[in-house]
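User: Need the bound-state model for nicotinamide-adenine-dinucleotide:
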Amino acid sequence: MSSSGSPEVRVVRVDLGARAYDVLIGRGLLAHAAQLIEGRAVSPLAIITDSIVLGHYGPAFEQAMKPRGLAAYRLVVEPGEASKSMTTAARLLSELAQIKVSRAGTLIALGGGVIGDLAGFVAASYLRGIGFIQVPTTLLAMVDSSVGGKTGVNLPEGKNLVGAFHQPRLVVADLDTLTTLPAREFNAGMAEVIKYGAIRDRALFDRVANGTTPQDDDLAGIVEKCVAIKARIVERDEFETTGERALLNFGHTLGHAIEKAGGYTRYLHGEAIALGMRAAAWLSVWHPETQLPEADARALEQALLDNDLPLELNPDISRDAVLQALGHDKKVAADGGNRWVLLKKLGEGQSGYTVGPDLIQKALSLLSNHP
Ligand SMILES: NC(=O)c1ccc[n+]([C@@H]2O[C@H](COP(=O)([O-])OP(=O)(O)OC[C@H]3O[C@@H](n4cnc5c(N)ncnc54)[C@H](O)[C@@H]3O)[C@@H](O)[C@H]2O)c1
Ligand SMILES: [Zn+2]
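Assistant: Bound-state model below.
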């Protein structure tokens, strides 16, 4: 806290013209939520959260809103990916209609990426679109999902198959909320942080390479860097048409396949991405167009290890299942091959590479640790 009693806030502007907004990053922000939100939202507000986050932060957050007259309705869903569904979205839409939230109303997503994606989708759909504010409470949501405007839900047929681009009006990332986040979830978020460093910023990579905790003095700066990298990419490719946004998929081509092969229960997203990044780093070493120095691939492995992320694929996940899942990745190119993000060096990624099946097998062998 600064001497004036107001928390220190870092601000990253996401400059999207009429849809521009600020991402506020700091500690103790929830207690000042009303002050931070004022001017960007009008009542009636509806807070969408899950029951775990509600237990930790719901009452304090609502209390903080009250003195400014920002009375809020509270809509609560079950924690977990299963809530990112059409069924839950339909229920929330009905609840908004029942409490008569108007077009001027604002939704507040208080929670992790599940809540942000779900509430954002509901905000995009209700009355053809109302404003929403992201209050991310997981590291993954702070550095990734709360920024950029991708919202959506899953279908039984696949993840994120329904959705809309709908930018928030404000993002409030209170780092203090991370102190209650299970360490495994925090580390999974670190995988995305390592990703930003690997694709764009060697100095950021070095800052987190030895491991990071929610108490880290440097954390605000680290989150700020990640958000700034994502903001610059989103500004240039808001609707994912130029290919630039695809850079954010480093580690995700294989990572998504591993998540799917594990039935979405074996690995957290960030853990699967850690495996995908390890593979993509070695593919970058072997690929004739990138020729990443081996030392860089080893440094990436060490950083994953030091952030308690997995390096080896669990033996009960078959290579065939991963290969099959790879064939169904959303990012399959028109020619039928997957497009990969590879590294030229640590801190410099590039998208659009084709990788042959032999190299993919080699990468899977590496993850399975039996050549
Ligand atoms: N829109 C995008 O651009 C984008 C990008 C990446 C990921 N995503 C989506 O994000 C989702 C994953 O988000 P996530 O990893 O934040 O998971 P999550 O929202 O499921 O949260 C993880 C768990 O932590 C709990 N939790 C949240 N905050 C907490 C806190 N402060 N203290 C204690 N517990 C807390 C939640 O209740 C939940 O059980 C996926 O659905 C993924 O598709 C979206
Ligand atoms: Zn990701």
